């Protein structure tokens, strides 16, 4: 495994539509391993392949809705060729991106989504995400269409607004 360079906003690669993954081979496995390592190293909760310069439909998301009192730890979900097949509810809050360091936008997302995807070996599966995980699924899948949160946010949040939000909500706006 190796850390990969995360492209930053302004790089044209981040604006491109990604092609489906068709080979579930060693190269894909290395990519997914490296993406997870790169996301964890950057303290992110999600990373999409185009952010490391690969225009293929693959993302990793950190599932943080775990029962830590029961000894569960956040774990990495790999989604290859993911699609949102159901969305319900609504949440609004700060959203960041590892490609846009230090900037948080006020973004509306569904509270709950159901995703259909393939695993690293090409097997199809469906998965649900709530709250921050639903937000991360939507954010990462948007990267595959060349979309950043900057394109869908209401506004960039000021430091004062962020501080007030975290005091009130104890929310989570980790970069993705
Ligand atoms: Ni992002």
Summarize the structure.
With 176 residues, the chain is an alpha+beta fold.
Query: In what order do the strands lie side by side in the largest sheet?
Result: 1-2-3-6-7
The 3D shape can be described as: globular
Beta content? 25-35%
Mean pLDDT: 95
Largest sheet: 5 strands, antiparallel
Number of DSSP strand runs = 8
What is the share of helical residues?
10-25%
Radius of gyration: 15 Å
Unreliable spans are none
Provide the list of bound ligands, each named once: nickel (II) ion
The DSSP helix count reads 4
N-to-C SSE string, H for helix and E for strand = HEEEEEEEHHEH
Given the helix and strand composition, which structural class is it? alpha+beta
Distance separating the two termini: 20 Å
How would you characterize the overall build of this protein?
The protein has 176 residues and is of the alpha+beta class. Helices cover 24% and strands 28% of the residues. Nickel (II) ion (NI) binds at residues 97-99, 139, 143, 176. The site of nickel (II) ion has 6 residues, from helix 2.
Q: What key attributes describe this structure?
A:
single chain, 176 residues, alpha+beta, 5-stranded antiparallel sheet, 4 helices, globular, binds nickel (II) ion
List the topology elements.
Elements: H1 26-41, E1 46-48, E2 58-63, E3 75-88, E4 91-95, E5 105-109, E6 112-118, E7 124-130, H2 132-143, H3 149-152, E8 155-156, H4 159-169
Antiparallel strand pairs: 1-2, 2-3, 3-6, 4-5, 5-8, 6-7
Residues 97-99, 139, 143, 176 line the site of nickel (II) ion.
